[in-house]
Amino acid sequence: MGGDNAPQVVVEGIEKARNEWSDIEFVLYGDETKIKKYLKDDKNITIVHTDEEVLGTDEPVKAIRTKKNSSMVRAAKSVKDGENDAMFSLGNTGALLAAGIFIIGRIKQVDRPALMPTLPVTNSPLGVNMLDVGANAEAKASYLQQWAVMGSIYAQDVKSIKEPRIGLLNNGSEEDKGDTLHKEAYELLSNTEEINFIGNVESNDILAGVADVIVTDGFTGNAALKATEGTATILLKELKKALMDNGFFTKMGAAIIAPSLKGIKAMFDTSRAGGAVLLGLKSPVVKAHGAANVETIFYTVKQIYDMLLNDTINKANTYFEKMQKEQ
Amino acid sequence: MGGDNAPQVVVEGIEKARNEWSDIEFVLYGDETKIKKYLKDDKNITIVHTDEEVLGTDEPVKAIRTKKNSSMVRAAKSVKDGENDAMFSLGNTGALLAAGIFIIGRIKQVDRPALMPTLPVTNSPLGVNMLDVGANAEAKASYLQQWAVMGSIYAQDVKSIKEPRIGLLNNGSEEDKGDTLHKEAYELLSNTEEINFIGNVESNDILAGVADVIVTDGFTGNAALKATEGTATILLKELKKALMDNGFFTKMGAAIIAPSLKGIKAMFDTSRAGGAVLLGLKSPVVKAHGAANVETIFYTVKQIYDMLLNDTINKANTYFEKMQKEQ
Q1: Looking at the complex, does the CB of residue A160 fall below 8 Å from at least one CB of chain B?
Q2: Which family does it belong to (chains A, B) (predicted)?
Q3: Which of A72, A289, B3, B146 is 20 to 30 A from B198, comparing alpha carbons?
């Protein structure tokens, strides 16, 4: 059980979710003493004590191979063995990816799992899902097609969008834009009947809500995601500094406008969307932000619950099996 | 002479620059009647009338081949023929790139010219130069090395930075990060003695001023630049909306804090840096933003003047010739 504020926020979030959905059973992997310290009531909650820890600085694959009694490896094994249906973690993203691939395993016809967070958009509380944002530094056009299909099924099941608009992140909006990879991906996505492909999307439009799902290779997706996060963080920090460092009257003005600024803060808050899904694995695996709060934990459980209720992973599985037979 | 507010802002910016630097001679290519309408004094300014226009919607290479009497083609030819030393345009970026490559020509040892804008940073008025941000959808590691050398020389000459810090945009800060292209680029940059290579830079740190020059392939650079611009634009728009749409008291608060917000606006204003340079061509070629104002035009002239005074292009040329001889 990793994360900056674990286990307190995790335990509180889990208890909140347990109180909401009585048919979920939780198994918490981590330091039993620490978890018990925050646990008010163990109804539907089991603790499995683990005494090893995958650190943020660990080399992912090595950590998964050597730290057999870490919460991450134990949780992944339990999913592999069918003891649990899904897992989430606030810990090392690379290690979670490695645990997903090497312990839980990929959906057979999916070449590579993708990391898919939800980003805020200005015109809808549902946000936009972007994948892959960094699980794969190298990509092929066929991966992007697989991710588009899985992203589309996810948006239908978890966000209840009937025909999710799927966009391809590219360096221009015209259909002939891109390098070889993205031109090929455009072609493949255009010919994928099961998705509502709306064409190319440029990264200045990500937050404008022009698509429900944006497909991209992990290298570009990582750059676009981090540039978006970095710019928002720096701009809001500079704004705060400007309001606090300019004397009494500015502070007074800042106090007056504070309630209105909450709307912007709320727009950029995607905690209700849950965590970033590692799509393409045999079971739902979700990475919640290391700095996640109680709300995010609660909504991450809801997100996984929605995937399980809708059989989201199996739908993707069925699609790819059907594709394979037709080929 | 293209651009949203041309020729008025261009003519005004040129006159301002002419009044500042008496040893520059300007040749304006465009509609003579329209230019004359705004020109107060033609000292050191010649007008060459052109009656064709490269539009924003034109296919770049085709436009350059067919619109022989456009301001862009005429200006590029004049540089090629040595009548003028440099050119800048507010028009179609792709067409300017095509004119640069096919009319003015590349520095012999530079494989591809790169588009290099200046982005703001929080800790210096000099900003950060990023290249390539979209002239090349496909790149090789050797291109990134060439761009790093040229970016470094530019930062020394035009921004007076003694040992410019050169960073490589990558998907992590550790040296083993990246796809094959960026791992190769890391290796090449590490072994380039003439530059001060500081290692990998992630795109959430672009505006934090961790480097003076950031090298990237055109596809990723385009995504990072547009994500940065898009996020800043959307955030500032939402902020304005929040301050204006929430009644009298919020508006009053907004009026009080307005002077303090100017500091942020000033931070994000890079007009003093001039335009985006097409580095790698035989002469300085600069793309100023279509929506450039008089200040940007003035500083674009200064930027070109600095490159000419310092012989920036020839320094790059000399470096690459020396490299070739040593191989």
Answers
A1: no
A2: Belongs to the PlsX family.
A3: A289
